[in-house]
Specification:
Layout lengths: L1 H4 L8 H18 L4 H26 L16
Helix pairs in contact: 2-3
C-alpha cells in the first residue's frame, strides 16, 4: 500500500476513461460477468463526462446577450 502514496493525482480525462473502459471490457471477457457492474459504472462516467464536455462547448459557442442601457439621458431645458 505504500507504493500508492508517492503517486501524483492527475485530472480525469476522456482518454483515461476510454482506456479504463477498454481494460474493464477485457477483464469482463476474461474473468466473467462479475466485473460487469464496474464496467457499466465506468462506461456511464465516460458518457457523463462526454455530455458535460459537449454542454460546456455548446455554451462557449453561444454569444452572450447584450445588456440594454436602462438609464435615460436627461434633456437640457
Amino acid at each position: 500500500m505504500t507504493e500508492w502514496q508517492g503517486r501524483k493525482r492527475e485530472p480525469i480525462t476522456e482518454e483515461r476513461l476510454e482506456r479504463a473502459v477498454a481494460v474493464l471490457a477485457q477483464i469482463v471477457e476474461e474473468h466473467g460477468p462479475g466485473y460487469g457492474p464496474l464496467y457499466e459504472s465506468v462506461k456511464q462516467e465516460l458518457d457523463a463526462f462526454r455530455n458535460l464536455k459537449a454542454s460546456i462547448g455548446h455554451k462557449a459557442e453561444q454569444p452572450e446577450p447584450r445588456q440594454e442601457q436602462t438609464s435615460r439621458k436627461r434633456k437640457s431645458a
